[in-house]
Protein: ABC-2 type transport system ATP-binding protein
Organism: Ureibacillus acetophenoni
Amino acid sequence: MVEIVRVDIKKAGYIENEAVIENIEFDIPNGELVGLIGANGAGKSTTIQAIMKTAPFLEGECDVETYGYVPERPIIYEYFTLSEHIDFLIRTVKQDERVLRKRAEELCKVFRLEQKLHEYPTNFSKGMQQKVMLILALTPTYDFYILDEPFMGLDPQAIRKLIQLIEDYKNRGAAILMSTHALDTAEKICDQFVLIHKGTLLKKGTLEELQRHKDEPLLEIFDDLIEDADHGKL
Ligand SMILES: Nc1ncnc2c1ncn2[C@@H]1O[C@H](COP(=O)(O)OP(=O)(O)OP(=O)(O)O)[C@@H](O)[C@H]1O
């Protein structure tokens, strides 16, 4: 098992030599959840694309090969039922088929989709499609998971269940990177934070390391850091 996932991106973007993000460097220790925080357009998803080596322009590296991934927007195969999506995953992932099938079944139950196995996710609601993405990403056993805004569209029950799953995966030693705008949830469940602003790393650390006074909420920390950065104080 990898001890730690090291992210060291010099530059990344969508067009050759046009960097959207620069100098993003942080670690995701195993057994920890790292929150990737930033305003709309700050560069969170681009950072994730760079980690996965799918950014069209990329300088720098991240030493990960296999990982579970929840994309920013659901990626659904139009002509596959939920069950066929799971079959396809099982055929592509080189892990014990029985273990994968059992895990997929459990996750379908957790997210209450076990009655929908023979229906087409393309016709599912937004939250149900998000649950499909979670089931597919969390079925295989990996050392590393990347969750790009995983709470998007989920009902409160599903959010609670996902938080429990994240806890379970951390406890078995997985490193997890999660981008989110749900700062009140993030501050309760993340071990560390990486704050991104205008394509650069504004600050990283635990909540305690980022707080300037006791009990300062993450939103306030982040707002003030952005304010300082925009006024050249950082
Ligand atoms: N496929 C793409 N092609 C070109 N530019 C892109 C593409 N995706 C994102 N960008 C640009 O890169 C910048 C960073 O976007 P990114 O999606 O990384 O932000 P984000 O922090 O994930 O935002 P959000 O919170 O809105 O999801 C933005 O200026 C955006 O317009």
